[in-house]
Write a structure and sequence with these properties.
CATH class: Mainly Alpha
CATH architecture: Up-down Bundle
Strand content: under 5%
Helix content: over 70%
Shape: globular
Number of domains: 1
CATH superfamily: MFS general substrate transporter like domains
Number of strands: 2
Strand order of the largest sheet: 1-2
Number of helices: 20
Radius of gyration: 22 Å
Distance between the termini: 15 Å
Largest sheet: 2 strands, antiparallel
């Protein structure tokens, strides 16, 4: 048990039955409190939160969708002819190009989040987006595989601080047991758009020969230009933290700050110092949440990088392989929304994580071993359905169980850093010599889901223990240093 101690809400909190926290004025978990807040009527509360949803989530999802596309479009470029031009079939060159992106991506998460408050949300995110868009544009003109490696490393440098900044930003706007629905919407909007990238890639590959550029080069050049344009969109429209938001009236801003304080007591930021960062890093649960996200991220990266190649091995040509990667992403939308709605309604995460992991395991097994290629393709659907639902659940599980801006900044950075290891595992376990079925890689993905289940069970037992001691009054200090706080299971 660890955490930075800060002042709690002014009113003593009442606890829910499943590890949540209820303020004295809280009704249902999805309704904004109004009993103790006569100045905030229900209509005002609903309109404010709906306005925030539409103002915060779509722009962040749009920008992250192209961050996701820019990170994983290597598979589409490979299928469109990059493998021949840059001789990527030689040895482990393609896996190495995939892997090296994650080296800087791992180590720059925490420094990036420390810069977010210092430089400002708009300035920092705009700089990152413009920089990696420029790198991607340059990637379209590389002459050999070594130059490709250099651009992939630079892409990792500039994308590294981006996702943890977005996760920190989103979690700062919402209460703990309404955040998964928003995480799911953000993830689905961005990843579904990313899932459509093979359609975009296929269309751009048809420009093959135009301007003396090969089709795969057009994929990278056009997507790089789109990303550079989005940097200017970000500068104009990206939201800040609640207390800094200029798009809210003062009344709405105070309303948002109050409801967050009533829920977990950390609406306003505490100062982030080196000492606090080191203190938070001593909490082993942050590393456990990171391990969860690493295991959840591995199937996601495997699907993005290697499914087009697996589909080509099933006998589909380049066009069919790229187009058939899209339907599994679409199929995951309703199930991910359903899981998020149920998890927030029940204020519970662990069971849903386990169920979605089991679905992912079954899907990988079918893709690996079933003799019928049509059934193997169905396995890709199951893998996507399970994995797409588990990722926002894992993110919400971690976000629900930390208090204070300083600890949240460290936690999101650790989680995304570990997610990079999921990408490294995918790049190393899906080896060139295993083309086209990639059975060893699919087995490794199944093992990652089993590890995820084991870690979730360990964390759940741990949280149950400390919640029980807190309810029995056997603690010398409140959980996470916040009076009335209980861990979400």
């Amino acid at each position: 048990m660890s955490g930075f101690t800060q002042s709690g809400p002014k009113q003593e909190a009442k606890t829910s039955e499943k590890g949540g926290i209820r303020s004295p004025s809280q009704g249902s978990i999805d309704k904004v409190e109004s009993a103790k807040e006569p100045e905030y009527d229900e209509d005002f509360a609903k309109k404010t939160m709906l306005f925030i949803d539409f103002r915060v989530l779509p722009i962040l999802a749009l920008i992250y969708s192209f961050a996701f596309i820019d990170r994983v479009n290597l598979g589409s470029a490979y299928a469109a002819g990059m493998d021949v031009t840059l001789d990527l079939r030689e040895g482990a060159r393609f896996s190495l190009a995939t892997l090296l992106f994650f080296v800087p991506y791992i180590f720059l998460q925490i420094p990036g989040n420390l810069m977010l408050r210092k430089v400002g949300v708009r300035n920092w995110l705009t700089f990152l987006i413009f920089s990696w868009g420029t790198v991607l544009l340059g990637m379209g003109f590389v002459k050999n595989w070594l130059e490709l490696l250099g651009t992939r490393i630079l892409l990792g440098v500039f994308e590294a601080p981006f996702l943890p900044a977005l996760l920190w930003l989103i979690s700062s706007w919402y209460k703990r047991h309404e955040v998964q629905k928003r995480m799911a919407v953000f993830y689905l909007l961005s990843v579904t758009a990313g899932g459509m990238s093979p359609l975009l890639a296929y269309g751009l590959s048809l420009l093959n020969g135009k301007g003396n550029l090969e089709g795969w080069r057009w994929i990278l050049v056009v997507e790089g230009l789109i990303t550079i344009f989005l940097a200017f969109v970000c500068f104009a429209f990206v939201p800040a933290f609640p207390e800094e938001a200029k798009f809210l009236s003062e009344r709405r801003k105070q309303f948002v700050i109050k409801r967050i304080d009533d829920d977990r007591g950390d609406a306003l930021p505490d100062e982030i110092t080196k000492e606090k960062v080191l203190l938070h890093l001593q909490d082993w649960t942050l590393w456990a949440y990171g391990l969860l996200f690493m295991c959840a991220a591995m199937p996601n990266f495997a699907q993005s990088y290697f499914v087009p190649i697996i589909l080509r091995g099933m006998g589909y040509d380049t066009k069919e392989a790229l187009l058939r990667t899209v339907p599994p992403y679409i199929a995951s939308i309703p199930t991910t929304i359903l899981v998020a709605w149920l998890a927030d309604k029940h204020k519970h995460r662990a069971t849903y994580i386990i169920i979605t992991c089991l679905v992912c395991i079954v899907g990988n097994g079918i893709t690996a071993w079933h003799p019928n290629d049509h059934i193997r393709y169905f396995g890709v659907f199951l893998t996507n359905i399970g994995n797409a639902a588990s990722i926002p659940t894992v993110l919400a599980y971690g976000a629900n169980n930390v208090v204070s801006h300083s600890k949240r900044s460290v936690q999101t950075a650790v989680i995304v850093s570990f997610g990079s290891f999921g990408g490294i595992l995918a790049a190393t376990c899906f080896r060139s010599q295993d083309i086209p079925r990639y059975v060893p890689g699919l087995i490794a993905t199944m093992v990652s889901q089993a590890v995820l289940i084991a870690v979730v069970l360990a964390l759940t037992i741990r949280h149950l223990y400390w919640n029980k001691r807190a309810r029995e009054g056997k603690l010398t200090e409140p959980l996470e240093g916040q009076p009335g706080f209980f861990y979400t299971l």
